[in-house]
Amino acid sequence: MEAWIYFVLSAQLIWAVCALIDKFVISKGHIRNPMVYIIVNGAMNAFLVFLLPFFDFSPISAIDFFIALISSASITAAVIIYYKAVQYEEISRIIILMQFIPVFTLFLSFLVLGERLSGNDFIGFIFLLAAGLLVSYHKEKKSFRIGKAFYLMIAHSFLVGVAYVAAKHVFNVTDFWSGVLWLKLTSFIALAVLLIPSVRKDFIQTFRSMGTKIKGLLGFKMTIDFSAFILSDAAILLGPVALVSALSASSAPVFVFALALLASVYFPKLIKEEINKSAIFTKILAIALIVTGIFFVNL
Fold first, then answer.
1. Could you identify which of 71, 108, 210, 242 might form a hypothetical disulfide with 166, taking C-beta atoms 3.0 to 4.6 angstroms apart as the criterion?
2. Is residue 12 within 8 Å of residue 227, measured between CB atoms?
3. What are the two backbone dihedrals, phi and then psi, of residue 272, each rounded to the nearest 5 degrees?
4. CA distance 106 to 246
5. How far is CA 79 from each of CA 72, 86, 189, rounded to the nearest angstrom?
6. How far out from the chain centre does Cα 269 lie?
7. Which DSSP symbol is given to 59?
8. Maximum distance among all alpha carbons in the chain?
9. C-alpha span between 221 and 209 (Å, rounded)
10. Structure pTM?
11. Sign of CA dihedral 138, 143, 144, 147
12. What is the pLDDT along the chain (299 residues), one digit of tens a residue?
């Protein structure tokens, strides 16, 4: 199996752990405004400055730096738009709309990078996309409404696709570790949300009132989150970015469900996940589609 596939799956498993920590911290009221996470993530990148002496940090052109900045700015904007969309629509429907990300990534990688999938790669892409749609689907009595959330999630998916493709370009013009550092350093742009007075006030109040254990938990989360970014960046470097996006989108919900299921059994007071035959069957079928997609990618 190709190395980038291992990197994607490892990154998504780690991010599934991060998602459960986020769910616990926010649901228990330790952080009431998810925008605070954007500030914390941006601030954590400051520690990268201390890593620079240990790497052969290669300079890049002004244009390539601007492209790295586009990648970071796109992710920041995408997260903000995602939180806004959640205010208008149920999370189960929002997740379905996130499956537009691989489609936009495929289109942009072809248009901007000239990246083309082989016949088997494209079949694998279709299976991975189908797995993502299946694992994100929830039965609802009400029909889906095309409203503000729909258009916001289209914008979110497009921006994530832009971030993927821009990051791929950065890795095409420099070595891996230089690319990682440039992409993380430009993530300082996330701190721009501090310019919003209400967000700045909420961040200060949240940090002051937060207990030591929660700060430690968030520190652990940010550490493993950084390692997941390294793995994801390695996947973007080595694999077709459209397939990296598709496998990421399809495997993430499966890992989150599996870990939430375990947490529900062993730590029911912390996280409770609804367990039923239909949900388990859906995830098993999604896994089968993912395995089939990976099989075609490796042909």
1. 71
2. no
3. -120, 120
4. 9
5. 11, 11, 13
6. 27
7. -
8. 58
9. 19
10. 0.83
11. negative
12. 789 999 999 999 998 888 788 777 776 777 777 677 777 766 666 666 666 677 777 889 999 999 999 998 998 888 888 877 766 765 556 667 777 889 899 999 999 998 888 888 889 899 888 887 777 665 554 444 556 777 888 899 999 999 999 999 999 999 998 898 888 888 877 777 777 888 888 888 888 888 888 888 888 888 888 889 889 999 999 999 999 999 988 888 788 778 877 877 776 666 665 566 777 787 788 888 888 988 888 86
Other CB atoms closer than 10 Å to residue 219's CB: what's the count? Answer: 11
CA 58 vs CA 30, 53, 147, 178, 266: distances in Å: 40, 12, 46, 6, 47
How far is residue 80's CA from residue 35's CA, in Å, rounded to a whole number?
A: 7
Mind giving me the DSSP string for 123-173?
HHHHHHHHHHHHHH----SSPPP-SHHHHHHHHHHHHHHHHHHHHHHHHHH
Identify residue 130 by its one-letter amino acid code. Answer: A
Backbone angles phi, psi at 239, to 5 degrees: -115, 165
DSSP H helical ranges for the chain: 3-27, 35-44, 62-86, 91-97, 100-108, 119-136, 148-173, 176-185, 197-209, 212-238, 241-266, 277-297
Residue with tokens 């993927």: 164
Instruction: Please name the residues in contact with 172: beta carbons below 8 A apart, sequence gap of 6 or more.
Output: 113
What is the DSSP code (8-state) at residue 89?
A: S
Three-state DSSP class for residue 28? coil
DSSP state of 195: G
Q: What is the C-alpha separation between 128 and 182, in angstroms, rounded?
A: 30
The single-letter DSSP state of residue 299 is -
Nearest-angstrom CA–CA distance, 27 and 95: 18
Two tokens, residue 167: 């990051």
Distance from C-alpha of 134 to C-alpha of 285, rounded to nearest angstrom: 8
